[in-house]
UniProtKB/TrEMBL annotation:
Keyword set, alphabetical order: Cell membrane, Membrane, Transmembrane, Transmembrane helix, Transport
Listed GO MF terms: transmembrane transporter activity
Entries under SUPFAM superfamilies matching the protein: ABC transporter involved in vitamin B12 uptake, BtuC
Classification lineage: Bacteria, Pseudomonadati, Pseudomonadota, Alphaproteobacteria, Rhodospirillales
The protein, known as: Iron ABC transporter permease
Transmembrane domains' residue ranges: 71-93, 105-128, 134-154, 166-187, 207-226, 257-280, 295-315, 322-343
Topological category with respect to the lipid bilayer: Multi-pass membrane protein
Recorded family membership: Belongs to the binding-protein-dependent transport system permease family. FecCD subfamily.
Annotated Gene Ontology cellular component terms: plasma membrane
Species annotation: Azospirillum lipoferum
InterPro entries: ABC_BtuC-like, ABC_transptr_permease_BtuC
Length: 350
């Protein structure tokens, strides 16, 4: 096989430099959004005060230090981590199902996780025999995993198309929403209030402990995805082509769905239902970076983190003095994007 000439190598290096520059710009946008999120609230702080409080807590007044470190920083960082996790999960679902409309939210995995967590919130029901403090995330994971396995089993059937998978996901969303309504019907008034508030999605109850667990799940799953970056990129060429390169397509899909369930379940268990991040983030990354998973995965994470961080900012300024439910904000952003994707898919089909 002839070696690529110098002009080809130069062109490849230029493409790589451009992708790295775009990743750097996304990281810069995330940093700016994070600082803005920390500055906004009932007590307004200047950007320099925020930077001082972060870098040298003892150099700022005690009130500013408490506001930043004890109240705002866990919430702001939770927005970053949850956005990155949901966007990464959506990117991998779109990859393994070869479906631009796939995400944990649109395929019912988030709804299933919500139902599992609601069983714990309303009735104290544990799907696994674990300690009470781990009940919600593990309930959410069990239901998300069962739903992912159903989707996986159907995707293996002969003649099943991408449109069929989307329709199944819509059916699962309605099913689990109905079950969630049933839980609320039989629960006490206090439990119903907790479930309703939680299903709207809120970062306000984020703590350092919840942030540590969610971050640990993200950090543990990311290297597994990066190790399979070549195989996942090959999968975008089609199952037969990927298999000809030596990729075990069935095993790759199953492992990916397990990891996606983890990424979707823990954020839902801790901050409630937050929709469309897993749909919008990967599409923005794909438009900027392309399909090469070495760059697409970090770009998806950064895009999702930026979107949710900016949504946190918007939730604070929509109604002064009130923090709007962040799940409502992301849905208002995501629904027009979802409709445009559907219309675009129909135009391509025709």
């Amino acid at each position: 096989m002839p070696l690529p000439d110098s002009s080809t190598r130069h062109g490849y290096r230029a493409v790589v430099r451009r992708k790295r520059l775009l990743l750097g710009l996304l990281a810069l946008a995330l940093l700016c959004s994070l600082l803005l999120d920390l500055a906004l609230g009932s007590v307004r702080l200047g950007p320099w005060e925020v930077v001082q409080a972060l870098l040298s807590p003892d150099s700022v007044p005690p009130q500013a230090r408490v506001v930043i470190w004890d109240i705002r920083l866990p919430v702001a960082l939770m927005a970053v981590v949850v956005g990155a996790a949901l966007s990464l999960a959506g990117a991998q679902m779109q990859t393994i199902l070869n479906n631009p409309l796939a995400s944990p939210f649109t395929l019912g995995i988030s709804a299933a996780a919500s139902f599992g967590a609601a069983l714990g919130l309303a009735f104290g029901l544990r799907l696994l025999p674990v300690a009470a403090e781990y009940m919600l995330p593990l309930n959410a994971f069990v239901m998300a995993m069962l739903t992912a396995l159903i989707i996986h089993a159907l995707s293996l059937k002969r003649g099943v198309t991408a449109e069929t998978i989307v329709l199944l996901g819509i059916a699962l969303v309605f099913t689990f929403n109905a079950l969630l309504a049933l839980v609320q019907y039989f629960a006490t008034e206090q439990a119903v209030a907790a479930v309703v508030f939680w299903t709207m999605g809120s970062l306000t109850k984020a703590t350092w402990g919840k942030l540590a667990i969610t971050t640990a799940v993200l950090v543990a799953t990311l290297p597994l995805f990066l190790r399979r970056a070549w195989a996942l990129t090959a999968l975008r060429l089609g199952d037969d082509k990927a298999a000809s390169f030596g990729v075990d397509v069935r095993r790759l899909r199953l492992h990916t769905l397990v990891l996606v369930s983890l990424l979707a379940a823990f954020p839902v268990a801790f901050v409630g239902t937050i929709g469309f991040i897993g749909l919008v983030g990967p599409h923005i990354a794909r438009m900027l970076i392309g399909e090469d998973q070495r760059f697409f995965l970090p770009a998806s994470m950064l895009a999702g983190a930026v979107i949710l961080s900016l949504s946190s900012v918007v939730s604070k300024i929509l109604i002064p003095g009130t923090i709007f439910p962040i799940g409502v904000v992301t849905s208002l952003i995501g629904i027009p994007f979802f409709i445009s994707l559907i219309l675009g898919s129909r135009r391509r089909a025709w």
